[in-house]
Structures are given as C-alpha cells and as structure tokens.
Description:
This is WDR60 protein. The protein contains no helices and nine strands. By secondary structure, the protein is mainly β.
Amino acid sequence: SDGSIRLHQMTSEYPLMQWNDSTNGQPVIALQWALTRPAVFFVLDASSNIYIWDLLENDLLPVAKQPIPSENIVSMAVLGDPEKPNGLLGIVLAKESGQIDIQYVKKKWALP
C-alpha cells in the first residue's frame, strides 16, 4: 500500500532486496514478471503508471516509467511465450470502463 516492493526467496522470510517508495508512495496494484526475460518485471501503481524493472540493467531503480493518463487502469497481465525466442512480450491493461488495451514491450526488455 505504500509503494514498497520486496523480492523474496522461498526459503527465507526476509527479503533478498527491498525497494521502498518505488512508486512515489502510490499503492502497487499489480506486479508481473516478464515471461521471456527472467530479470524483468512490471509494476502497475494506483495512478495508472507502469514501471519496468530490469534487474540486470539497474537493481536500484526502474529502467522506465510509462504513465497511462487516459483512464484508470485496474488490472495488468503479461503475455508472451517463453518457448519462442522471438522476444514478443506484451502487457494487457484492463481499464475502469471495461476496455482492454494491449501494449507491446521493446525488444531490449523482452529478448531472453
């Protein structure tokens, strides 16, 4: 609820990493790992901002932030096929109105 993100290992109750205030204090609505690149994950906050984290590029801050100003985003899912090396990776966004929006991710964050 405060924008903190914690990375846990299944064998320990203590986080391996913790990023406080990662969304400028906005609650985290959804967090999804990329299906095609294990070090990348996406965060959706309550202000409809999407943050892209690539832990191989920067493990302190997100590598990109994309605001979605047109309408409130209420849910997010990641699509892609980890078995295919084409690097096709997308984010499905569910809007408050019920509309679905699919946005594709740049290859540099999608390629294995």
